[in-house]
Specification:
Pfam families: FMO-like (PF00743), NAD_binding_8 (PF13450). The protein is an alpha/beta fold and about 500 residues long. It contains 13 helices and 25 strands.
């Protein structure tokens, strides 16, 4: 929901890029812990919510439990634990209004680039109005990027032979058309990831039939749509007290599943397969359609609330085909096995297109920053880039857990600089020979296609990225702000320090 008025101020202590979960989290921490700090949120779209405002495909929902995925400062009280997108958007709207954040958001303001001037210790941020095309600039001491890790403009669709021959409709979930009516239609969903397993049960009620076509299977884990313990605790001891307990419980459970997958992958595979077999008709070919070649958590597990996908398959309203595409035809898809899938609509749930920092061009003193050549400091700053913080959530647990830690540490960093009269902080990588590794360690196709363009992780000290919540709590929440890898300076041109 866009604000009724838009201010004209363009100079701030902190500019936050993106009004999704990461940007809202940063705004909350600044507003509550540094109330005198001026900030603005620059959002390229016309509404807040990021992912949850962008995607409109049927059934879109969280793929993490909401007590973990929700903010640490705002209890999740809805009965749904795996929540629909509109419920998540309502929660974000409440968080924005309860904390006076909405008036700080500048909608339709797409950030194109930002240049840091070390002489003045300030960023100049170049923007374009998404509605008028008008260019403008903002200035700030700090920039916080909450842009996520994928391209909001378009998803990934591979080249399919014969695509132009198909006489039906082809859609990608990221550009779901408002006028798409699939009632009574034969639908083929290409893909086996989180989007595909969401679409299958959501479309099966109204479509004539839905087929999930996959080259290879993914692990699918069924979880309760509602958390009985959480709902009971909310009633008995109240949401504020209950939330802390529920959040700890869910973090421990999710981290336990991940660690077990890494330590005993064969056992976890057997348990996952046993659950799938229990939910599908006797004799169903689980080994072909739900038994991946990789170990659990080499790629993200696909979560399905209450086994809804398995219910759709068991009812005959949906099916899974594991095969390779030969060509699109006028009436569907011909597979390499010789089978033909008839379709009125083909949905290409073929993944995301990764994009670091929302595609923003960074430069320091006019010199362009090669993002792929930087190394991440504490998984929240970039080597050689002053006064810049970014949020990159976890791949193996709720994204927002990391956002809360990063934002809190950023506030501590600003406080430290104020106390010491410092205006610039820059992570400096002294060991140029240190081995570098990919920022994300998943084997998923969408990650492998685009990860080379991202900053790298290091292998020692604050340059490591472990995707381990308990480790980040130790170094971001409890660890010191000062670090040998940080260079603090004061500007040569007189300027106010952050207040």
């Amino acid at each position: 929901m866009a604000p009724n008025t838009r201010t004209t101020d363009t100079d701030f202590d902190v500019v936050i890029i993106g009004a999704g979960i990461s940007g809202i989290g940063a705004a909350y921490h600044l507003k509550t812990r540094r109330p005198s700090t001026s900030f603005a949120i620059l959002e390229g779209r016309s509404g807040l919510g990021g992912t949850w405002d962008l995607f409109k495909y049927p059934g879109i929902r969280s793929d993490s439990d909401m007590p973990s995925f929700g903010f640490g400062f705002k209890p999740w009280t809805h009965r749904q634990s795996i929540a629909d997108a509109h419920v998540i958007l309502d929660y974000l709207d409440e968080a924005v209004d309860e904390n006076g954040i909405r008036t700080h958001i500048r909608y339709n303001t797409k950030v194109d680039g930002a240049d840091f001037d070390t002489r003045t210790g300030r960023w100049t941020i170049r923007t374009t109005d998404a509605e008028t095309g008008e260019s403008s600039t903002y200035t700030a001491r700090f920039v916080y990027s909450g842009t996520g890790y994928y391209n909001y403009a378009a998803g990934y669709t591979p080249e399919f032979r014969g695509r132009d021959r198909f006489t039906g409709r082809i859609v990608h979930p990221q550009q779901w058309p408002d006028d798409l009516d699939y009632t009574g239609k034969k639908v083929v969903v290409i893909g086996s990831g989180a989007t595909a397993v969401t679409l299958i049960p959501a479309m099966a009620d109204n479509a004539a039939h839905v087929t999930m076509l996959q080259r290879s299977p993914s692990y699918v884990l069924s979880l309760p749509g509602e958390d009985a313990i959480a709902n009971s605790l909310n009633k008995v001891i109240g949401p504020d007290r209950a939330y802390r307990i529920i959040r700890r419980k869910n973090v421990a459970l999710n981290r336990g599943i991940f660690k077990a997958s890494k330590r005993a992958p064969r056992l976890v595979r057997k348990l996952l397969m046993a659950d799938v077999k229990r939910r599908l008709p006797k004799g169903y070919d689980v080994d072909t359609h739900f038994n991946p070649s990789y170990d659990p958590w080499d790629q993200r597990l696909c979560m399905v609330p209450n086994g809804d996908m398995f219910t759709a398959i068991s009812s005959g309203r949906a099916s899974v085909v594991t095969d390779h595409i030969d060509t699109f035809t006028e009436t569907g898809i011909a597979l390499t096995s010789g089978q033909h899938l008839d379709a009125d609509i083909i949905v290409t749930a073929t993944g995301l297109d990764l994009l670091p920092l929302g595609g923003i061009d960074l430069s320091v003193d006019g010199e362009s920053v090669d993002i792929a050549d930087t190394v991440v400091y504490k998984a929240m700053m970039l080597s050689g880039v002053p006064n810049f913080v970014f949020a990159m959530g976890y791949t193996n647990i709720a994204w927002t857990l990391k956002v809360d830690l990063v934002c809190a540490h950023m506030v501590r960093l600003l406080d430290h600089m104020d106390e010491n009269g410092q205006t610039i902080v820059t992570p400096v990588l002294s060991d140029s020979a240190m081995e570098r590794t990919p920022l994300l360690d998943l084997s998923s196709g969408y990650v492998q296609r685009g990860i080379d363009a991202f900053p790298k992780a290091g292998t020692t000290g604050p340059w490591t990225v472990k995707m381990a919540y308990e480790d980040d709590v130790e170094r971001l929440a409890h660890g010191p702000v000062e670090d040998p890898a940080l260079r603090f300076e004061s500007t040569t041109v007189e300027a106010e320090v952050l207040v």
